[in-house]
């Protein structure tokens, strides 16, 4: 009887520890990219961008277009770096109605 109680107690403790660690881990990333748009997107079509989570297997940037679409692009692409630098870092875009940069922080 004592062995059964000990086994049950150990099982309950293991389940509690497993559920606690799952809760601390949190939900997974909201959006990851697995296919990428390789075509250059015109600067006037982009209103914002988001970096994907570091937990995604592929580093990516989501460009938000004026039509509301989100396009996955490679952050290493030269045209992506140029677009973000010219439009958001140097402040080419002065639109006040739309947020310019959407950053996803883990």
UniProtKB/TrEMBL annotation:
<dbReference type="InterPro" id="IPR039809">
    <property type="entry name" value="Chemokine_b/g/d"/>
</dbReference>
<keyword id="KW-0964">Secreted</keyword>
<keyword id="KW-0202">Cytokine</keyword>
<dbReference type="Pfam" id="PF00048">
    <property type="entry name" value="IL8"/>
</dbReference>
<dbReference type="GO" id="GO:0005615">
    <property type="term" value="C:extracellular space"/>
</dbReference>
<dbReference type="InterPro" id="IPR001811">
    <property type="entry name" value="Chemokine_IL8-like_dom"/>
</dbReference>
<dbReference type="InterPro" id="IPR036048">
    <property type="entry name" value="Interleukin_8-like_sf"/>
</dbReference>
<dbReference type="GO" id="GO:0006955">
    <property type="term" value="P:immune response"/>
</dbReference>
<feature type="signal peptide">
    <location>
        <begin position="1"/>
        <end position="23"/>
    </location>
</feature>
<protein>
    <recommendedName>
        <fullName>Chemokine interleukin-8-like domain-containing protein</fullName>
    </recommendedName>
</protein>
<dbReference type="GO" id="GO:0008009">
    <property type="term" value="F:chemokine activity"/>
</dbReference>
<keyword id="KW-0732">Signal</keyword>
<feature type="domain" description="Chemokine interleukin-8-like">
    <location>
        <begin position="29"/>
        <end position="87"/>
    </location>
</feature>
């Amino acid at each position: 009887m004592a062995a059964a109680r000990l086994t049950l107690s150990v099982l309950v403790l293991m389940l509690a520890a497993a559920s606690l660690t799952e809760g601390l881990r949190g939900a997974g990333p909201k959006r990851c990219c697995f296919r990428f748009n390789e075509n250059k997107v015109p600067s006037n079509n982009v209103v914002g961008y988001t970096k994907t989570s570091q937990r995604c297997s592929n580093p990516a940037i989501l460009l938000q277009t004026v039509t509301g679409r989100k396009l996955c692009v490679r952050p290493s692409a030269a045209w992506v770096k140029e677009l973000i630098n010219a439009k958001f870092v140097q402040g080419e875009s002065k639109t006040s109605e739309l947020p310019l940069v959407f950053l996803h922080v883990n």
